[in-house]
Design brief:
- The chain is of the alpha+beta class and 395 residues long.
- Helix content is 35%, strand content 23%.
- The chain has 12 helices and 16 strands.
- The protein is globular, with a radius of gyration of 22 Å.
- It binds (2S)-amino(hydroxy)ethanoic acid and manganese (II) ion (2 copies).
- One manganese (II) ion binds at residues 72, 79, 114, 342, 368.
Length: 395
């Protein structure tokens, strides 16, 4: 973990390896070396997902372990990396101990799980399940409109030839940090993940009228900044109105011209809504969009709303969940069944084969931050449950 964390390591701690960046390439290259040293059959598919497989796949499709090596900006060293490296270690343990497996076992490093440089997130696994075509992926523009996905993938040398359509899997397991406060606050060691909540990402463009901050009477303003602030306030209010597990985040706000004495003429903001209940999520989306349109109309500001991501809640496979629970119990770890608040590649893999996840605690529940931390002891317990469950599945 620490060697991988040096790639894209930030001086004050934490890691930044945005997808298809040179840091992402370096991390991929290191993983490729480790997989080859282990004697795995390595391959890269058309959207850059990396595979390492062990065992002959004549009689059955592999049991795959995996996650992602790309991170958010100012990210942590555990989100994604844990699942890839613990997966590699589990395979190494099977090989070195000559564990008899009737099915092959494999590792996957998915392209662009985070979706912060190119949306949507979980892009590599979404493409693998056929949720987005390869051609369309290649043409996707970066969030800052400066880059084209296919060109960047080519530049780092990971535009592979393995056909997505030929992919087969017996099962998929992903070890991941919880990225929330539940396990730590309840002093539990393992999260037995039952589902991933629904995710809705929208970008909103507001076009008003830049004007002088001093001379423009309030009733004549078309203040895009005021409308944006109203939407941000409403997003929070919405979570109280809907209640239960509804969450809302306005993560990006770009104001133009962003000057102290100029009424904002244009704003781009993003809204991330999530809920385990899809009906509530749809209600939240409708309320937010209706509110935004109304407040913009009152202020005389034009509004354009684009959906960037809309994933339904995804339940994981009951028999795999029971296997994870059985492994945790057998190893004497305290655990609880729980949903995932974050999106993961496993939610896409669930459309291809029986899939599930294993969580370990996040210190202070922090993630997507340089302060992200999980202890070596918790990592070991998670890796043990991953190994135990993988062997059960591949035996
Ligand atoms: O946004 C998410 O939940 C994931 O980290 N991409
Ligand atoms: Mn992740
Ligand atoms: Mn993440």
């Amino acid at each position: 973990m620490s060697q991988m964390a040096k790639i894209g390591g930030l001086s004050g701690g934490g890691v930044e390896r945005l997808t298809l960046s040179k840091e992402d390439k370096e991390a991929r290259d290191l993983l490729m070396i480790w997989m080859r040293e282990l004697g795995l059959k390595v391959s890269v598919d058309q959207v850059g997902n990396m595979y390492g497989e062990w065992g002959n796949s004549k009689n059955a499709a592999p049991v795959y372990l995996g996650s992602h090596l790309d991170t958010v900006g100012n990210g942590g060293e555990y989100d994604g990396s844990l699942g890839v490296l613990a997966g590699l270690e589990a395979i190494q343990t099977c090989i070195e101990n000559n564990i008899e497996l009737s099915k092959p076992i494999g590792l996957i490093n998915f392209t662009n799980e985070e979706g912060v440089r190119f949306t949507p997130d979980m892009m590599g696994s979404l493409a693998l399940k056929g949720g987005i075509g390869v051609e369309k992926v290649m043409k996707i523009k970066s969030v800052d409109k400066q880059f084209i996905f296919g060109e960047e993938l080519e530049k780092i040398g990971y535009k592979g030839t393995r056909k997505l359509s030929e992919f087969k899997a017996t099962a998929y397991l992903e070890l991941h940090i919880e990225q929330g406060p539940v396990l730590e606050s309840e002093q539990l060691e393992i999260g037995v993940v039952e589902m991933v909540q629904g995710i809705s990402w929208n970008e909103i463009y507001l076009t008003g009228q830049s004007n002088h901050a001093g001379t423009t009477p309030m009733h004549l303003r078309k203040d895009a900044g005021y409308v944006a602030a109203s939407i941000i306030q409403y997003a929070r209010q919405l979570t109280h109105e809907i209640g239960d597990r509804q969450v809302a985040t306005v993560g990006m706000v770009e104001v133009e011209p962003n000057l102290i004495n100029v009424v904002p003429g244009r704003v781009r903001l993003t809204v991330d809504l999530r809920n385990t209940d899809d009906l509530q999520l749809m209600e939240a989306e409708k309320k937010l969009i209706d509110f935004a349109k109304k407040i913009a109309a009152v202020e005389g500001v034009e509004i354009e709303i684009n959906s960037l991501v809309r994933f339904q809640p995804v339940p994981f496979d009951d028999s795999l969940i029971a296997l994870v629970e059985g492994s945790a119990k057998e190893m004497g770890y305290s655990y609880k069944r729980m949903p995932s608040g974050a999106g993961h590649d496993a939610q896409m893999m669930a459309a291809i084969c029986p899939s599930t996840m294993i969580f370990i605690p996040s210190k202070n529940g922090i993630s997507h931050s340089v302060k992200e931390y999980s202890s070596p002891e918790d990592i070991e317990k998670g890796a043990n449950v991953l190994l135990g469950t993988a062997i059960r599945l591949a035996e």
